[in-house]
Amino acid sequence: KLFMQPILANMWATLQPILNILSTDHVCVVGAAFGWGVEAVVAETGATVVGIDISDYIATASSTEESELRAEVTTAGLDPDTGRGLEVMSFIYDSQPRSSVIVLQNDAASGPQRKAIRTALGGNWPSVVVYENIVDDTWTDTDIINARNAGNGFGGQQRLIWVYKQTAIRTYQNLFDLLPAGSEVISTDGQVYLT
């Protein structure tokens, strides 16, 4: 949390002026993990945002941060309730949930899952679907198209934005060329934006 929250906040502060997501938009962030990117999108845009992630770990660990951190401090040979261990705990644990947003365990691939997303967005379909840096070298073309199809299953009128960090196997242009017209690919630093 101490590491990723500021990185995602900075990333979205950079990307928002380029992407111009409106405060009236309803946004679905795919690959939201614990929701820190969702928090950043809300802070930068004022939009209504829901995060989704398919990870069982994310779904089960979203409320266990304190116990995990206490275990790590203990593993380091410190008592998390006294002395230096307490100082470390005071620095790394803020007594708050991992995130202030709800992340649904959902892949948007079926009608009931899309309905759950719509419900989380106050009865509105997403006007913007953001794929938050989920594509890596393990993803096949078919995986990408399936994710795109799931995101396009909200009536086909939404923007599909792929926030992506280029890999040795797949360049920004490769990803963009694979996606149908209307998709947007933007680098995590905002230096590359393909529309």
TrEMBL record:
This is Methyltransferase domain-containing protein.
